[in-house]
Specification:
Number of strands: 0
Number of domains: 2
Distance between the termini: 42 Å
Number of helices: 15
Length: about 260
């Protein structure tokens, strides 16, 4: 007789997940997250410990929704990893983008959109939104699409680049940081878009983002592009975006 399969481990309940997150937290990590824009409540769970929980849970969308609605920063960090992107509606993505706090949550919500069926629709609606939180998610999504979606024409990204110079200095720190990151990501897509990104950066000038009490710095577009292109082409890739697509063996939101 063939050996019997091991029974699946019991599903982790929301109460148990929160209990494990609380036990895994540390005051040192909690202080680091607060300095980087996280808000209470949070336990201070390291990404290594979140990764261990992710390996046990894998995908559990119902748990992800419950974790998100707690409002706890660490619970939301876990939620974006165990969520099923295909199960999130367009309205769900809006809700998560509007209720997440800090750059980390915004970027992860953009990555959930990237991994699901609503990426192109969300790009258009978020960048046209009146709310800065949705626009910030939109710029993050634009950067990820530039690196990973070969189906979109370069003209889509070129048009968005043209919007940035006149707007970037008048928006929130979070949106300004996302715009600057988008210029770099779009400039990594192709030689033509690299030239357009350099032109946009010249028009923009110095980008100032308040990173609070952290050692974070705002990347300078042209220096970052030079370094990234040199590395990718030195490895034989046509562009940094091509190199990123080659190395992508799991969704970016699960890597860290």
């Amino acid at each position: 007789m063939p050996p019997s399969k091991k029974p699946a481990p019991p599903r982790l309940s929301l109460v148990d997940a929160l209990s494990e997150l609380e036990a895994a937290g540390s005051e040192q990590t909690r202080k680091i997250y607060l300095r980087h824009g996280a808000v209470e409540p949070l336990f201070g769970v390291s990404f290594a410990k979140l990764k261990a929980l992710l390996k046990r849970i894998k995908v559990d969308h119902a748990l992800a929704v419950g974790l998100w609605e707690t409002g706890n920063h660490d619970a939301r960090n876990l939620a974006v990893k165990v969520a099923d992107p295909a199960a999130l509606s367009a309205d769900d993505l809006d809700h998560w983008a509007l209720t997440g706090a800090g750059r980390l949550c915004t970027d992860y919500v953009a990555l959930l959109a990237l991994d699901g069926p609503h990426a192109h629709a969300k790009l258009a609606s978020w960048l046209a939104a009146d709310d800065a939180r949705l626009r910030t998610a939109g710029w993050r999504l634009l950067g990820h699409l530039a690196q990973r979606d070969e189906a979109l024409a370069d003209s889509e990204f070129l048009g968005r680049l043209h919007e940035i110079p006149s707007a970037i200095h008048a928006v929130t720190d979070a949106e300004r940081e996302a715009m600057n990151a988008a210029v770099i990501a779009v400039g990594c897509r192709s030689e033509g878009l690299r030239a357009a990104a350099v032109e946009a950066a010249t028009q923009i000038g110095r980008v100032v983002v308040d990173h609070g009490q952290t050692a974070c710095k705002t990347p300078e577009v042209m220096a970052t592009l030079d370094k990234t292109w040199a590395y990718a082409t030195g490895k034989g890739f046509a562009s940094p975006a091509a190199a990123e697509r080659e190395r992508e063996r799991e969704p970016l939101r699960l890597r860290c």
